[in-house]
Amino acid sequence: MPRRWCMPLTTLALIFGSMLAVAGTASAASMMHPATTGVAHPSVQPGGIMVRPGSGFRPGARSTRDTTVDSTNWSGYAVTGGNGAFNSVSASWTEPTGICSTRKSSYSSFWVGLDGFNSSSVEQTGTDVDCSRLTPRYYGWYEMYPAFPVNFSNPVKPGDHLSASVTFSGSQTFTLVLHDATRGWTQTITKNQSGLARSSAEVITEAPSSTSGVLPLADFGKVNYSVSAANGTSLGSQHPTEIIMVDNHGAPKDSTSAISSTGAFSNTWIRSN
Fold first, then answer.
1. Alpha-carbon distance 54 to 71, whole Å?
2. Residue 124, exposed/middle/buried by CB under 10 A (0-12, 13-18, 19+)?
3. What is the pLDDT averaged over residues 72-88?
4. Does this model's pTM top 0.90?
5. d(C-alpha 177, C-alpha 173), whole Å
6. How far apart are CA 111 and CA 95, in angstroms?
7. Do residues 94 and 105 lie in contact, with contact meaning Cβ atoms separated by under 8 Å?
8. How far apart are CA 13 and CA 98, in angstroms?
9. Which terminus of the chain is less hemmed in, N or C, by CB atoms within 10 Å?
């Protein structure tokens, strides 16, 4: 004879209420982070201001090019000026392949943006290659830092041809565009925000951060930026600052190639941290 299990109504009510609370939390999380590409780290911020090495920094191998700065989370190129100097930035790149060979999670971002080099905001859009342990994850996003980034649900795959731009117009309007020519989709975001510096424009490979600081840089192999421009003029013709990503001991985490007259350059992964 099968056993019958009896449970008090008060216990059932508590269990049902807990299930509703969990479902509500999951629903709210999916609304805040709509990407369905499997990045289960809502505290990870794939974008943000440039972080300079701390007080314990010991200079390591430096570039032979004239104007360089060190950063623990950025590599690439930036042009800088006074407030209001930049109204647009753009670049194109090929989504690299994530090489996820360990069970430790790691992250890498590729983006264009205004601000962040010497200001406390960044207006930016780009893509990620993250390693969720042994599984690579690819997705696009935009961010009006310090607001949290918003992930796109559109598919992104290795080898996709991507282009991105951030444009300021009027007195407070920013238009952020991310286009995947291979998959045939475009995301256009319009945000109104006043008082931002617009004192730099950059094309960046980044080690994203969390509340605990800069995260391990995912092995992306090599990312090629085919063109880049600020205010409609090639980054390469504006004497940009080269940014070298290093750890707090000065060891490089990736390398940055010379930039061409058309604004083309590449970053090559070296180590995670």
1. 10
2. buried
3. 98
4. no
5. 13
6. 11
7. no
8. 46
9. N
